[in-house]
Specification:
The protein is 82% helix and 0% strand. It is mostly helical. The chain folds into 2 domains: 194 residues, no CATH class; 201 residues, no CATH class. Helix 2 runs parallel beside helix 6, helix 2 runs antiparallel to helix 11 and helix 10 packs parallel to helix 15.
């Protein structure tokens, strides 16, 4: 980090900040700061809208929204067969543009296919997964998928360009417009359509801004678009559809599995307490962990697979700083979780605080692992990442299976879950570092 960016701080503090944020990871943390600012403002807007929305919509409406959001989160990443994740990797913009167009073509074909299936067999297909309440809104599912996948493509192009500001701006735009749409349609008594349309806006808001921002680059690179180059790009990055698609599916399952297992093992109140604990812990991970992951991926992809020593040096710097900054909040949560939750949410949520204090054990390891997992993208390790995600699912089955067989208390179950996931994230981080070539 340059001295100019720290000149507003006193001398001693400036030296400390230069030590913490400087060196090989300085660009990563600059990018993270920009992304985190946008994400933070977006989340504040979203949180501020909740009290209004809960007075306009009923629990049943939010139930439909939860199912709708879950479906989008599972299906949308699969539309491009994950070729979209390779956009930051090519050295030449022309090849990256061919990957972008390949992803766009796959997205349109997959969305059209899903739309036809939902139009003809929507009720039957959704009923298989107990989602029949979404049948009247099948067309919104298609729009949501198209919006979400399009936004992902454009933000990954922005990541390639290391244009973090435009991503941050669109995050704020998504949250603001989504909240306005949900509130406005709620006042018109359009339920649950208002929530669903607002979620589509949240998935794709900012697409127009991204297109305007990068439209000139797309026009300049259009001359490089060739079917032969698209096939070459598809073959070069074939590991993404072969291994990243099933890996994404396993990741979606593992993210939803803990709550589903708790619902199967314990009563609704315990499940709700656990759900709030997961949501509270997920906020800092989404705000900082995932924004840092985007910044790390952009900087590491810019270095490329031909400069592994620099990628390794940057990864080590990021890991040390993440561990340092996440350790104190984890310790505070470990010892004061119930009290903090009681103050923030009310006395009825003390158990959620107790659960969160246990989950804090693996918070540091998950926080550190999130950005370095992108190392596998850079060095063609999609198969290795698939194995790690499969391992995580099997560990989850082991944790909750052991709880069922031994009739453990919720606290004991969560302790097993937290310790097992801590070991998984730690070993995954070590393995990612060892996967970087030696030269």
């Amino acid at each position: 980090m340059r001295d100019r960016s720290l000149s507003v701080f006193p001398g001693t503090l400036r030296k400390v900040l230069a030590k913490v944020f400087g060196g090989s990871a300085s660009n990563v943390f600059k990018g993270m700061a920009t992304l985190a600012l946008g994400s933070g403002i977006a989340r504040i807007i979203g949180i501020a809208a909740i009290p209004v929305l809960t007075r306009l919509y009923g629990p049943e409406d939010f139930g439909v929204l939860a199912v709708f959001s879950a479906l989008l989160s599972i299906l949308a990443p699969l539309l491009t067969l994950r070729y979209v994740l390779a956009i930051p990797l090519p050295r030449h913009d022309g090849m990256a543009f061919n990957l972008l167009m390949l992803s766009a073509g796959l997205m349109l074909i997959m969305t059209l296919s899903i739309s036809l299936l939902l139009w003809v067999f929507g009720v039957q297909l959704l009923a298989i997964f107990s989602m029949e309440e979404l049948a009247p809104w099948w067309w919104l599912i298609s729009l949501g998928l198209l919006a979400s996948a399009s936004y992902e493509m454009l933000t990954l192009w922005a990541t390639r360009r290391r244009n973090y500001r435009v991503i941050a701006r669109t995050s704020v735009w998504q949250s603001a417009t989504s909240s306005i749409v949900k509130i406005g349609l709620g006042l018109l008594a359009l339920k649950p359509a208002g929530l669903l349309i607002g979620q589509v806006v949240a998935s794709g808001g900012g697409i127009g801004s991204l297109l305007r921002g990068f439209g000139g680059e797309f026009r300049d690179n259009w001359r490089f678009l060739r079917w032969s180059r698209m096939r070459k790009a598809a073959w070069r990055h074939r590991g993404f559809p072969y291994f990243r698609v099933p890996s994404q599916f396993l990741l979606a399952i593992s993210s939803q599995a803990p709550l589903l297992f708790m619902a199967a093992l314990y009563d609704a109140n315990t499940t709700g307490q656990f759900g709030l604990a997961l949501m509270a812990l997920g906020l800092p991970l989404q705000l900082f962990g995932r924004t840092l992951a985007k910044a790390f991926y952009a900087e590491a992809a810019n270095l490329g697979h031909k400069r592994p020593s620099e990628v390794r040096s940057m990864a080590h710097a990021v890991i040390k700083r993440l561990a340092f900054f996440s350790l104190l909040p984890a310790i505070v949560l470990l010892f004061f979780g119930p009290m903090l939750f009681s103050l923030a949410f009310g006395d009825e949520w003390i158990q959620a605080g107790a659960f969160a204090s246990i989950l804090a054990v693996y918070l540091v390891f998950q926080f550190v692992q999130t950005p370095v997992a992108h190392i596998f993208y850079i060095f063609d390790g999609q198969k290795k990442l698939l194995i790690l995600n499969l391992q995580r699912v099997l560990l989850l089955i082991f944790c909750f299976g052991a709880s069922y067989m031994l009739s453990l208390t919720p606290e004991a179950t969560i302790w097993i879950y937290a310790l097992t996931l801590s070991a998984h994230y730690l070993l995954s981080t070590v393995y990612a570092l060892r996967f970087i070539p030696s030269s």
